[in-house]
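User: Design a sequence. Structure:
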């Protein structure tokens, strides 16, 4: 088992507040939410970041993008939500296993 924290969550070694799972993806609530609803959409396959994806990940990435609004709706984000993908240390990425942040709720999130 690698040292990757999200691989450990996928394997059930580290607990998470899961809101979705299928054979390829998992979604769980962020441990340090920055909005009333804040969850992470994560492929079970270990890919370090968006910059490490290639055409072989195309279907997976499309599936993640299409799932995000469905899960956001289920979490009550009927007015909309924000998606964020931090890539690399220069992009503020801290966990080097690809993930989409989805968050919203409460007041409208400012643009900056
Ligand atoms: P990033 O900066 O995009 O790599 O964000 C990593 C995110 O993972 C942060 O928002 C953390 O709060 C979140 N995080 C780290 N460890 C856990 C965990 N065990 N369960 C849920 N979220 C986590
Ligand atoms: Zn991983």
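Assistant: Done.
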């Amino acid at each position: 088992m690698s040292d990757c924290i999200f691989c450990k969550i996928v394997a059930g070694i580290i607990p998470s507040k899961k809101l979705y799972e299928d054979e390829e993806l998992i979604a769980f609530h962020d441990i340090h939410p920055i909005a009333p609803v804040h969850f992470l959409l994560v492929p079970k396959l270990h890919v370090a970041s968006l910059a490490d994806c290639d055409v072989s990940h195309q279907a997976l990435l499309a599936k993640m993008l299409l799932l995000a609004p469905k899960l956001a709706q289920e979490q009550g984000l009927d007015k909309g939500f924000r998606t964020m993908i931090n890539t690399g240390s220069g992009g503020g990425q801290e966990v080097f296993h690809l993930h989409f942040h989805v968050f919203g709720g409460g007041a409208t999130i400012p643009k900056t």
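The longest strand covers residues 37-43. The beta strands are 18-21, 25-29, 37-43, 82-84, 100-104.
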